[in-house]
Amino acid sequence: MLMIASIVMRVDDLPAQSRFWQAALDYVERDPADDDWVVLKPRHADTPCIALDAHRSERVLPPRIHLDIYAEDQQAEVRRLAELGAREVHWDNLPVDADYVIMEDPEGNRFCIVDRPDWSGWGRVRGEKDSRSVTE
Questions:
Q1: Between 106 and 135, whose confidence is greater?
Q2: Would strands 100-104 and 87-88 be described as parallel, antiparallel, or unpaired?
Q3: What pairs with residue 53 in β-bridges?
Q4: Which distant-in-sequence residues (6+ apart) come within 8 Å of 77 by Cβ?
Q5: pLDDT above 70 covers what percent of the chain?
Q6: Side by side, which strands form the sheet with 37-42?
Q7: What is the pTM of this model?
Q8: Are 110 and 103 in contact (CB under 8 A)?
Q9: What's the distance, Cα to Cα, between the start and end of the chain in Å?
């Protein structure tokens, strides 16, 4: 059996990127940061960690991998992330009915904010108890 426990992103400015992603996702440091490495974990949820690796790497577009981040209120989150330093990426081929907004963090790492107000996991993310019985 396998499971994704952490997603690693290369960054230039580890402290600044750590602050951005902690504020963006409400994550906290799993352990104190090293000079070139930090693992950020969800404060309240059981979802994958984000590890930041301070090693310069060439930026390639389109990126080979990006994060899809669910949002209950997509437009509010896009505005909040922009206030934190993220930028919206405009793409000429974006489908008219796209349920996602392409963004990049302050260093240009791409991610999508996906409109998912009906996602069944929001209660778990907020730490709410599952209303289903143990036998279900």
A1: 106
A2: antiparallel
A3: 10, 37
A4: 71, 113
A5: 94
A6: 6-10, 49-53, 37-42, 27-29
A7: 0.88
A8: yes
A9: 24
